[in-house]
Amino acid sequence: MNTPIQFQRDWHDEFLKRIEDDGPWANWELYNLALEAESHTCSPDFLGLQSPNHLPHMTFLPHQLNVAKTVIEEMNGKAILADEVGLGKTIEAGLILKEYMIRGLAKKVLILVPASLVIQWEQELNQKFFIPAVAQRKSYVWEQCEVVVSSIDTAKRSPHRDIVLNQDYDIVVIDEAHKLKNKRTKNYEFVQLLKKKFCLLLTATPVQNRVEEIFNLVTLLKPGHLGNQENFDKDFRNDRHSLKNEEKLKQLVNKVMVRNRREETGLKWPKRIVKTIPIQLSESERNLYDSISELKSEPYFQRSKFAVLTLLREVCSSREAAFITLRNMLQKLENSPYAQQLIASQMKKVELVTQNSKAMKALELIQSIDSKVIIFTEYRATQLYLQWFLQQNGISSVPFRGGFKRSKKDWMTHLFKNHAQVLIATEAGGEGINLQFCQNIINYDLPWNPMRIEQRIGRVHRIGQQGDVYIYNFATENTIEEHILNLLYNKINLFESVIGELDEILTKFEMKNIENYISDILASSESEGEIRLKMDNLASLINLEGGIQRKGWEEHAAARDSSLS
Amino acid sequence: MQQHEIHRFLERYFIANECEMVEKNFSYMKVQLTIELDKVLMNRPFYWHYQEKTGAPPNPMALTLVTGQQHPPDGKGEFIHFGSPRLHQIFSSAKKLASFIRMYESVPRQGAHHIPLSPWLCLNVKVSYRCDRKKDMILSYGLHLINGEIQSQFHDRLKTLLLTKRIPDFCYTLSPLIKPVSGIKRIENVITEYIEQDDHSWAADARLRWKEDEDLLESFYEGESDKPESYHVEKEALKTQYDPAVSVEIINGGLFYLQ
After folding, report:
1. Which of A183-192, A260-269, A347-356, B240-249 has the highest mean pLDDT?
2. Structural domain total, chain A
3. Could you tell me the pLDDT band of residue A430, with boundaries at 50, 70 and 90?
4. Does A103 sit within 8 Å of B98, measured CB to CB?
5. Domain identity same for A33 and A115
6. Do A88 and A17 fall within a single domain?
7. Which residues of A are less than 8 Å from B190 in CB distance?
8. Does residue A159 surpass a pLDDT of 50?
9. How far is CA B74 from CA A385, B20, B68, B142, in A?
10. Which of A59, A125, A33 is nearest to B1 (CA)?
């Protein structure tokens, strides 16, 4: 079969005109340079990667180069990139994109990411890959710009939807693609209708347990690869949750999915050294804690047990945090003098607190560490207090909040790196904030959602971290904090597992709202014993059902032990 | 392309464009752009529009480019490496500025004889094989516009000659018998022949991959008599992804009068 040959002929007319006009003619040196430039930019082979030569300032890891090559040469540019968190899926996507652009196989590119990551993708593509990506802000951008980054929610909405569906995209990249697992959603249907030659779906959690979801994701990429629904059910499905012919399914899925695990990459990960710092409340602090604890049994607060729980957590953090909540409660309780009186008496007790035992411990620790420290707290009042308190003791710190604009986050990171010893953060700061120049984390108080702890640690414990990472968990003795720490640390080994694994387990068992489980246990239990029992059950649920993963943990732990010896 | 090659390339580029080198060493160069090159590289059409309207004295910019470890004393300058957008802008500007050429062989005077120079048409082309992958090659052909002889790798031959913009004294040009239009056509035929004799397993392989994916697609929608839009979208996308094609683009070319 003959392959059609197209001659581009626009050169001809201009040439004939120049002969007619006797010029103008180029100079010989420039003529040679033009030809040399062309020979430098052409791709002499179908195979291999050109992009790394174009990006000499980047150091790509072997597994990232491998992924790019595999996706282009074996998967024909349609793939699910499913590396574990922290191995650089964005980098892999950038490499693949760059390669297609260098080879002239891609011009028009659409990148759909969560709204919070739009700016970050835009920046990374521009700065790391010299890909002129533009964040979609005006509707003309869809048509006029070649590489557009947008959230899927914007893109699928009128009036954008029709414009976007009208474009012929060379590549569509979708970050957090696991959100497309349900084929009955508008998002799924929208992506299905996009005209796309190549397609990359990025996800850290390819959900293997739900037969349905993996089927939908692969089908989005390559309809028919796993058969149609009917064949698929017949070939692979046992019942709603379980599979048959699993090996065969895996083989098929692996034809369109690349997944690197941390252990396989051979990358050396810094060690995590976890220390629990027990803290004894002072007498006045203890008084306040106990007195608020008693509110639980007050009939008036029967229905607002969660509010009481919040208060207790705040007392463990700082009297300032508790005070603000109490003041707010007081304002809301205007029509109940009795409750008002109860709250007011708590506020009096707040005023009686003379010291912050935790803050003193933190100060002592920071002074002994003598290098950069990040303190994470859940409360802004605590954040402010700590900043003041450290200042009083001659330690400079910078604040950090999730609500900061990107530029402010970058600025604070810069200040922390160059001018301050301590960063006090109320949130992990979002993706893309890298603090790997710091080796010490103080969990001043603990969030109840384990994923948030992972995110905290993940800012520091990542590729590029040179030293070991020290994690200090503060826990006030005989308080709810102790229960939480017991569950998260002692029972499910959270702090020592690596990023990603927990995410998988929680997704797998739909325990994203583990926070609610925990509050429920703490709020509704009648006694300490009951709390302990229920927490134990929760822990063993996570551990037991985490089956395979737990094995992974043990192997990981074993590897860690041997690296110690 | 290594950094020293880039350095050399830039130097030659600016000299060829008659820009003044204000400052240079092995690691950086500061170049005073000409008006023409400022318009090509600096992307400030409003300034030039304004300047032309008001007749203000033109003020083309100076450009500092760094290719090595050492920076200029004022610390300013753009670092240029193989992937930098500036270099690729310069690459494509070279192509735009040097698409058409006419040169004469510089023949030393031999007694009182007048020396005839024969007209050649030279085309440098980029041939691209593309499917879901791509490969390029550069070919260069010269056609003798009187006797019809065609030589491959013609540009390499030209590089060994001494060429000048103006016809040397004591030389005269022979009139071509073949018109440029049909000359181009003849070279196109040779290129077509070259391509057709080349190995095309890449295209056959691409068609196989295409067929595989299309079969999967068909099986997915099998039994649906009224195929949904997503089917047609995907089917068309597979075509643009895999359908193999060859394209031939002229990089530059022109007339050469040779002995």
Report:
1. B240-249
2. 3
3. low
4. no
5. no
6. no
7. none
8. yes
9. 45, 19, 15, 49
10. A33
